Amino acid sequence: MQQTKKNQGFTLIELIVTVAVMAIIAMMAAPSFGDLVARKQLDTTARDFALIFGETRGQAISLRKPIMLKLTCPTETDSITAETKVVCPANTATSFSWISPRDDIELTSDAIDVVFSGLGTAKQRTKMIDNPNYDDDPNLPLDPVGNPEKIEKIVPLTFTICNADLGESRTILVSKIGTVDSITSGTCS
To answer: What is the pLDDT of residues 88-113, one digit of tens each?
Structure first.
């Protein structure tokens, strides 16, 4: 009696079908994987941005003097390539700087510097806006006190960074005592 041994392997057709199914699944997952990476980069940038508030506040408390967090940096033009780029000065004992480390993520809220007092509290930020009640009648005498052309507006300590490609944003809320209260998700406006 002769026993026959049965082959226990996969046929070529079974392998081709399996590889084709895996390729289709991979193609469907690739775009969502790219979005996942972009979301993680946005989350990391938001956390790093929140950390710079803590560093600045801690420096102000330890030195017991006002420390500024600059949210804009000057631009420089390369004399050889004529390329313009943002160049932030190095952080010093009295001044910190922050710009987004990624080109696809930007600060969309008011980029007005934040000053932390020697006690660590965040000072109120303001900006000048057009006075909605300004009367530009040429017959009236110029009165910058009673009829100012521009007035001061309080800017909240809320900072939004946005990834326009994703359409998603992260909002960092800083309290008056200078601590980061929350980081929330949203959509870019």
So the answer is: 888 888 889 888 888 899 999 988 99
Q: What is the pLDDT of residues 63-94, one digit of tens each?
A: 999 999 999 888 888 888 888 887 788 888 88
> Helix (H) and strand (E) counts for the chain?
1, 11
- Record the tokens describing residue 41, joined without a space: 């980069």
Q: How many CA atoms lie within 13 A of 132 on its CB side?
A: 1
| Residue pair 119/174 in contact by the 8 Å Cβ criterion | no
Nearest to 120 by CA among 48, 172, 46, 69: 69
Report in angstroms the alpha-carbon separations of 154 from 58, 111, 124: 24, 13, 7
Give the architecture (CATH level 2) of 30-122+157-187.
3-Layer(bab) Sandwich (3.55)
Q: Which are the contacts of 152, defined by CB distance < 8 A and separation ≥ 6? A: 126, 127, 128, 129
The residue ranges of every structural domain in the chain are: 30-122+157-187
**106, exposed or middle or buried, with CB in 10 Å at 0-12, 13-18, 19+?**
middle
The residues, ordered by sequence, that sit 6+ positions from 126 with a Cβ below 8 Å of its Cβ are 112, 152, 153, 154, 155
Distance CA 120, CA 60 (A): 6
